[in-house]
Known about the structure:
two-stranded antiparallel ribbon, 36 helices, mainly alpha, 839 residues
Amino acid sequence: FARHGLPSIPQQNSTMSSSSSQSTSSTNSFLAPANLCGQTLLQLVGEGHTILASIKILSERIPPAFLVAAGIPQNNGPSNNNDNEQSNNSGGMFLNLFGKEERRSSNKPPTASSSSTNNILDDNQKSSCDMEDAKKYTPFLFDFSYLHNPEEFEATLTNHDSTTTTTDGGNNNAAEDMADLEREFAINHLPTIQEYYTLFTSIYNYQSELNRFSSDLTKGYFIQYTVESVLLDQEGRALLCEAVWLYGVILIVLERLLPGPIRERLIIAHFRLSNEGGGDISTIESMCKLCKGTGIHPPQSTNSASFGQHVSHKYPMEEERLFARYPLPVDLVRNVVGCLISDDVYRQSSAFPNVDQRSIRLSRQASMLYVVLFFDNAVVLREEEARLREIVDKYFYDNWVVHVYAGMTADLSIEWKRFRAAKAALDNVLEVENVKKMHIQNAKLIGQCMAELRAYLTMGILTDSFVLDNRHDLLNCLRKCNIAVRWRILHRRTTNAVYHGIVCATASEVTADPKLQGDFAVNDTHVVSLLLLSSQLEMQLKHIFTQLLEKKESIWINCRAKASGMMEDLAQYFEGDVTLARVSRHDGLIDWFTSMASEIRDLAYESGDHFTVTGRKIQLCVQALEDVEQYDLVDRDVQVKTFLQESRELLLQMARAVGINESITQDIKFISDISYGVESMKSYVKIIHSRISKDPSNVNLLQGFFLKLSNSLDGPVVRLKQLKSPEVERVTGYYSSQLVAFVRNVLEIVPVSVFGILVQISDIFERRLQRLPLKIQGDKLGAYAQLGERYKLSMMAHELSIFADGVLSMDNSIIGGIEINPRKLLDEGLRKEMVRHVS
C-alpha cells in the first residue's frame, strides 16, 4: 500500500498474542474452607452481626414491667418540635429501623399519616393500660443492689403491703399474694427473660472467643499466621478489623437500646425465677460485670439541636470505661488502629477514584476507627496529638458526623469533646468558617446534581449507545449525587447547636432547588428530591448495564459485521462499476478496504488475548481509518468520509462494549450505599407524601428509592452468607420486615389520595353536574355542557390513572427474603381506605 501512499493495515501476528497473556486473579486462600484461621475469624464476624440483630429484635419486646421498674416510660408519644426529630420509643432510647411517621396536626388536610391517628391513639391507650398493669410486678424486679444483701430484699417482699392490713393474718396474706404474683410473672415472662440472658451470654462468649483467637495467633497455634500476617492478607485484614469493631459496636448498641437499669433487672430476674438461677458464681459475676449500668442516661431535652429526640443518634456514654470491663489485648488494638489509619482495607478506589472523594471512599474505615479508638482506655484520643491530626486530616477533614452501624450516627464535635488530643485535632478543622464553607460547597453540589439528573432522566436519553458513550460522565454524576446527599443527611443530624444553625438554615421561601445565594439554605425537600431522582438514575443504569453484560457479545458481532460490510462496500465502490458511481477504478484503495474488512472480521470476541490487546487492535484499525482520509481521492468524497466515520463509531462501540464487566455494577452498588441513612428516612415520609399528593407522577420514582434502600440490607448479612450460617434467614427476615413496613407506610398515601379524588369526583357528579333532560333547547346547550366541571373530572380521572399506572408499573421486588408485590399493597390499601370511609 505504500506504493499508493496509503496507510498500512494493522496485522494480527501471533507474537503479540503470545507475549500478552490474560491475567488471572488467584483465589484468596484465607477464606478457604480448610483454612481454620480464616474460618474461625469469619465465624466471629458472623456471630457479631447476629448478636446485633438480636439486640435490635429484643429491644422492641421489652416487657413493660421492666420499663416501669427501671423508671423508663414505654412511649412518650411523637414529637412535633421539628421535622427532623423522630418519635421516641421507650423514652427515646430504643432504636427502630423504620418507625411510624409522626401524626399530623388536626388542622391539616387528611393524609396517610392522619388516617391512622385513631389507631395510634388506641395503641397509646393500650400501652398506658399495660404500663398501669405492669406496676404490680415492680416490687420483685430488683437491680444489682439485690446481690449485696439478698435476704433483706426477699424480706421486703414478705412485708410488702403489710401497712395496709389490720388483721393478724394480714402479713401472711400479703406474702401469699406476692408469691402468687411472682409465680404468675414467671409463667408469663420467663421464656422472654431467658432470651435476654442468652443474648448477654452470647456477648460474653463473643469477647471470650475474640480474646482466645488473638491469644492463639500470638502463641502460634495457627502455624503460619500471626496478627501481623493476618493484617497483611486482604480478606484477613478486613475480617480482623471488623471483629474488633463489632465488639465495640455491640457494647454501644447494647447500652443504647437496653440501658443498664433494664439489663440489671433482667439478670436478677433470671437468677431468681429460673431453675438455673443458683448456678456457678463465676457466671453470675461475669454477667454482672458485663451488664452493670454505666450510670449515664441520655439527655431528655427536646431541643432540635440536642440528643433527646434523635432516636438513632448516639450520645456520649464513656465508652472507654464500658470497653474496659472486658478489654481486648493492647497489641491487637494497636495493630488494628494502625491498619485502619494507614491502609485502604476494602480497596474501593474504583468506586470513588478522585482524591477529593477520599473521605467518602474511606467512610467505612472511619466508622470502624471511631469505635476502635475507644479501646485501650482511649489513649490515642487522650494523648497522641500527632496521630489524631493524621486521622482527622485523612478521614474527617470535611465531615464530623459519622455512621456507626445500621443508621446509628455520632457527632464527633460532641463525642470527642472530653478528649484533649482529639478535641485539639478536630478544632483545627471545625472552625465556624470551615463549616460554612462545607455547607456552601454541598449546597452548590446539590444544585449541580439536580440539573444533571433532570437532563439525564429526560425520556429517551438513556439508550444503550448513550450509556456506552457517556459511561464515565454518568458514573461521575452518581458519585456527586451520593456524596452530596450523604453529607447533607448526616450533618443535618448534628447535635452541636452552632453547626446545626449553619447546616439547617432555613430560607424565607420554599424553592424547588437549593438557594445558592445568601444563606445557601437546603431543606429536607431538596434532600428528598435528590434522593428520588438519583435513585431513579441508579435503577435505570443498573438495568441497562445488566442488559449490556448479557448482550455485549451480540453487540460486538453486530458492530463487527456492519463495519466489515462498510469496508467491503467501499472496496466495491472504488471498482468504478457501481451504477451512478462517478469514480475511477483505484486498485490500491480496493485492496486496502478489502484487507481492512478482513482485519475487522478477524476481531474475535473470545480470541484468548488479553482485553487490552483487543483494544489495541481496535485502536490501530480506527487510526488507519483516520489516516486513509488524508488520501486526496477519499478526502474529496463526502459519502466515503461518512462511511469511514460510521465505521470508526462502530469500532469504538465494540471497544466500549467489551469494556463492560461485573465490576461496574459492583461500583454502582457501593456508590449508591445508603446504610448510613436508613434511620433518617422515616423523617422524610411526610415530605414524600406531600410530593405525591401534589404530583402523582412522583409515584414512578418510588421503585428506585425502595431498591436503593434494600441495598442497605446487605451489610449485616454479607458475612453470614459467606459463612453459610443458619442465622442468615432470621437476620435478613428482621431487617427485611422493617423495610417492608416502611414501604407500606410510604405507599399508604396512594389509596388515601385515590379515595380523596374519588370523593371529589362523587361530589361533582352528585351536586354540581346538572341532570340532562330528554330535550335541550339549542340556546341552553352551553349551560348544560358545564365544561369547567367536566374539565375538572377529566383531570381527576387522569390523576387516578397516574396513581394506578405508577404502582402497577413497579416490578415485584425481593427485599431480603420477602417479596413485595405493589399491586397487592395497593389492593390492601384500597380495601383499608374503603372500610375507613364506610365506617
